[in-house]
UniProtKB/TrEMBL annotation:
This protein's encoding gene: nuoB
Protein name as annotated: NADH-quinone oxidoreductase subunit B
GO biological process: aerobic respiration; electron transport coupled proton transport
Enzyme class: translocase
Primary location class: membrane
Keyword Cell membrane: yes
Organism encoding this protein: Ereboglobus luteus
Keyword Ubl conjugation appears in the UniProt entry: no
Pfam families the record matches: Oxidored_q6
Assembly, per entry: NDH-1 is composed of 14 different subunits. Subunits NuoB, C, D, E, F, and G constitute the peripheral sector of the complex.
């Protein structure tokens, strides 16, 4: 498989260029040694190349995440090698394993303690949907029921290359994020919250069983003739 380090997307400035300048014009000026940019572009470029992931692991997928930080795959090539043990110093949560109902309140609390702007990669079948333990009474059937997810990395477990691909997708999202207007991220808008409800154990299950602003139960399938 191709080496992700050879892809140009991790460090290149995004398109489109600042307003009023065409891509060709900017490229032409860049060849002359003149770099034209905007505040948003520089801000997003810096953010995308200095990600600090939260250092924690939930299950076997965490072993693959650890491999990504080790010498063979070397996440440092993407500017994201500083795994932080404190959520207040991290801006990327990698959900890397089975989320049990007992663990869930702590996971949501960690997410709330991370400062904005923050992003979430869901790694593997368990964190995406419950995976092989989906029918288990004690397993959350997808962390996206409780916190917002930016990128899903499928697999059981996903290989380190797949996680690196997910990281590059997050970087792409960061580089293309507008800072103003209706598409501005949640932390720049007054009508959204950056804190998410922490579920508690009720009589039979978690209360609430999901965050209704993030996830809705699928509509029941109605078969014709029944
Ligand atoms: S998706 Fe597979 S490898 Fe990852 S935590 Fe679940 S069972 Fe383990």
């Amino acid at each position: 498989m191709s080496n992700p380090a050879n892809t140009p997307t991790s460090t290149h400035l995004p398109t489109p260029p600042p307003a009023g300048i065409s891509v060709e014009e900017r490229e032409s000026m860049r060849r002359q040694g003149v770099l034209l940019t905007s505040f948003a572009e520089i801000y997003n470029w810096g953010r995308a190349n200095s990600i600090w992931p939260l250092q924690f692991g939930l299950a076997c997928c965490a072993i693959e995440m650890i491999c990504v930080a080790a010498a063979r795959f070397d996440i440092a090539r993407f500017g994201a090698e500083i795994f932080r043990a404190s959520p207040r110093q991290a801006d990327l949560m990698i959900m890397n394993g089975t989320v049990t109902k007992k663990m869930l309140p702590q996971v949501v609390r960690l997410w709330n303690q991370m400062g904005e702007p923050k992003f979430c990669i869901v790694m593997g079948a368990c964190a995406s949907s419950g995976g092989p333990f989906r029918e288990g009474y004690n397993v959350v059937k997808g962390i996206d029921r409780f916190i917002p997810v930016d990128v899903y990395v499928p697999g059981c477990p996903p290989r380190p290359e797949a996680l690196l691909h997910g990281l590059m997708e997050i970087q792409k999202k960061m580089r293309e994020e507008p800072l103003t207007g209706p598409d501005a991220p949640r932390y720049f808008r007054k009508d959204t919250t950056c804190e998410y409800p922490i579920p508690e154990f009720g009589e039979h299950d978690l209360v609430p069983p999901y965050n209704s602003e993030l996830w809705k139960p699928p509509a029941p399938i109605v078969r014709e003739g029944k």
